[in-house]
Amino acid sequence: MTDPAPVTAPRDALVASVPELRAFALSLARNPATADDLVQDTVLKAWSKLDHFTPGTSMRAWLFTILRNSYYSMQRKGRRETADVDGAFAARLSQAPDHDGRLALRDFAGAFAQLPDDQREVLILIGASGFSYEEAAQTCGCAIGTIKSRANRGRARLAEMLQLGPDEHPAISDPTANGIAPAKPATSR
Amino acid sequence: MARRDPGDDADPNTPEEVPPAIEQQIDANLRRLYRASLDDELPDHLRDLLERLKAQEQRDD
Fold first, then answer.
1. Chain B residue with the nearest C-alpha to that of A94
2. What is the 3-state composition of chain B as percent helix, strand, coil, each rounded to the nearest 5?
């Protein structure tokens, strides 16, 4: 009898997910200090409650749910720092060379930061981190139709803010972006 | 079944999708934005936290 395929230990999977958790936290909080607090809270909670994690389910979705709940809990308690909407979040990108694509990305980041929380989180989950609509619905605790509505509204608002039209040259895109694939393609479109 | 938030904004008010070309532009930039965050180095206090937790796990084992 052969040994089963090696399975990543849950704690190792948790540690490996920290960069993604931080990227999600940054998109939610738009403030690096608040994002780091959220990640720390999430890691501590998840580490102490790993026995609540159901093997065979998505560790990433579980962790993102904990982080998201922490974010909204922080907001309800009034602990949220004032988001520096297009300051700290977009300025993080200013370290890179000032070629056209990067400058355009800063514009994009500024517009993205102005979206409501529910649209930002859905766009990051679906558009960037490769969550399926089902996973995003599970993470956000809402229906799949709600996720699709929020994604549509968010994209429409970004298109409006950035004055994107269907016939317009893709000024905010660049060829290097095409090589960055999400971890898993979204399904159920 | 997924829990529904109060004030759920699903159908029938689902807005129209943006044209596919615009959706592609937006999603490409979302991925670039996300990638920029992924490429950030973790701050020292988060790295220290992970090291402490891993060391604690080894002690507990």
1. B36
2. 60, 0, 40
Give me the DSSP letters along A129-179.
S---HHHHHHHHTS-HHHHHHHHHHHHHHHHHHTT--TTS--TT--GGGGG
Q: Do B31 and A182 touch (CB under 8 A)?
A: yes
Q: How far is A18 from chain B (nearest CA, A)?
A: 9
- CATH code (residue A46): 1.10.1740.10
Tell me the C-alpha to C-alpha distance, in Å, between residue A61 and each of A46, A104, A179, B17.
Answer: 12, 30, 24, 25
Q: Which residue of A has its CA nearest to B22?
A: A166
Domain boundaries, chain B: 20-60
- Rg of the Cα trace of chain A? 18
**Chain A with chain B: Cβ pairs closer than 8 A:** 151
d(CA A50, CA A59): 10
Q: Which pLDDT belongs to residue A77?
A: 84
Residue A156 tokens, joined: 């429409």
The position carrying tokens 């994107």 is: A164
This complex has an ipTM of 0.76
- Say if the Cβ atoms of B25 and A172 lie within 8 Å: yes
- Condensed to tens digits (0 to 9), the pLDDT of residues A144-165 reads 999 999 999 999 999 999 988 7
A181 in any annotated domain: no
Q: For the full predicted model, state whether its pTM sits above 0.90.
A: no
Across the interface, whether the CB atoms of B2 and A39 are under 8 A apart is answered no
Q: Which residue has the higher pLDDT, A189 or A61?
A: A61
What would the two tokens of residue A53 be? Answer: 């994690």
Give the count of domains, chain A. 1
